[in-house]
């Protein structure tokens, strides 16, 4: 149903000089859906996420968030409604965990300190880090830092969360704690686009898996369909290598 369409990406293209990185990407995300984007390095996955929140401006096409077109002119308001979780956490190293999660609520949303503190405590509990409010990023493991980054995004009440390889910078033993938080979010009905190589997450949490290659969506389907009978030979080859 169109009224539940939260993110609507229509025919987005992007080139860097002669390199066409996105060659017309169309995808839609309904409220509560998790879509996992997979594909080889350089296929345009990060560029797609960056175009969605205009860290990179698309060359053509339209992107709508909850029915409103995302444009340079309204980008700050739109960004406040999208959470972005990066591979390298992007925490403020000079702020402790409490302030990392609290600052955007106060500066961007205008929340007062008491409300922001309360919300921060809730979100830290949700990611299992209520004990770490006073710690600085350098005192945390990578997995803990990424969970703080997720709590920070959640505290902004995003209508959609975008993840760009959230576990790629982590040692394997720290990946699980971040994946479990993401699985819980998916189960709780968060709307999410997740670029990841974590096929266990894709299999378990994705409503749909999108396979990108060379700036195109080559194939998309349910985890069952993609893992058991991907039609496209490239998709099959990719899944066999990675799974
Ligand atoms: P992925 O995330 O799937 O690995 P990217 O979206 O990061 O792919 O990159 C797609 C292609 O675009 C790559 O060839 C990359 O080198 C190129 N690219 C990405 N960002 C830039 C940029 N700012 N300037 C020039 N080329 C870029
Ligand atoms: Mg990338």
Structural summary, described in words:
This protein is α/β, with parallel strands linked by helices. Helices cover 37% and strands 26% of the residues. It has helices at residues 45-52, 75-79, 97-107, 113-126, 142-154, 172-187, 199-205, 223-229, 233-242; strands at residues 5-16, 19-30, 34-38, 60-65, 68-69, 82-85, 160-164, 192-195, 208-213, 216-221. The chain has a six-stranded mixed sheet with strand order 6-7-8-3-9-10, sandwiched between helices. A four-stranded antiparallel sheet has the order 2-1-4-5, covered by helices on one side. It is globular. Magnesium ion binds at residues 45-46, 164-165.
What is the topology?
Blueprint: E1 5-16, E2 19-30, E3 34-38, H1 45-52, E4 60-65, E5 68-69, H2 75-79, E6 82-85, H3 97-107, H4 113-126, H5 142-154, E7 160-164, H6 172-187, E8 192-195, H7 199-205, E9 208-213, E10 216-221, H8 223-229, H9 233-242
Parallel strand pairs: 3-8, 3-9, 6-7, 7-8
Antiparallel strand pairs: 1-2, 1-4, 4-5, 9-10
Helix pairs in contact: 3-4, 3-5, 4-5, 5-6
Magnesium ion is lined by residues 45-46, 164-165.
Domain ABC transporter: 7-239
Main location: membrane
InterPro entries: AAA+_ATPase (IPR003593), ABC_ATPase_HisP-typ (IPR030679), ABC_transporter-like_ATP-bd (IPR003439), ABC_transporter-like_CS (IPR017871), MetN_ABC_transporter-like (IPR050086), P-loop_NTPase (IPR027417)
């Amino acid at each position: 149903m169109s009224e539940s369409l939260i993110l609507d990406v229509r025919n987005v293209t992007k080139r860097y000089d002669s390199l066409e990185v996105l060659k017309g990407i169309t995808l839609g995300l309904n409220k509560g859906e998790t879509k996992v984007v997979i594909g080889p390095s350089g296929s345009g996955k990060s560029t797609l996420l960056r175009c969605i929140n205009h860290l990179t401006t698309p060359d053509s096409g339209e992107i709508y968030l909850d029915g409103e077109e995302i444009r340079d002119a309204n980008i700050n308001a739109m960004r406040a409604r999208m959470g972005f979780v990066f591979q390298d956490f992007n925490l403020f190293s000079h702020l402790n965990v409490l302030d990392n999660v609290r600052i955007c609520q106060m500066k961007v949303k205008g929340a007062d300190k008491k409300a922001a503190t309360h919300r921060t405590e809730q979100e830290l509990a949700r990611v299992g880090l209520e004990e770490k409010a006073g710690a600085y990023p350098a005192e945390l493991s990578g997995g803990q830092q990424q969970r703080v980054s997720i709590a920070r995004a959640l505290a902004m009440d995003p209508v959609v969360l975008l993840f760009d390889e959230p576990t790629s910078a982590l040692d394997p033993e720290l990946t699980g704690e971040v994946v479990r938080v993401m699985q819980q979010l998916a189960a709780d009905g968060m709307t999410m686009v997740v670029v990841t190589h974590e096929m266990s997450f894709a299999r378990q949490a994705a409503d749909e898996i999108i396979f990108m290659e060379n700036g195109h969506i080559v194939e998309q389907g349910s985890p069952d369909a993609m893992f058991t009978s991907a039609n496209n030979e490239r998709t099959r080859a990719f899944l066999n290598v990675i799974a």
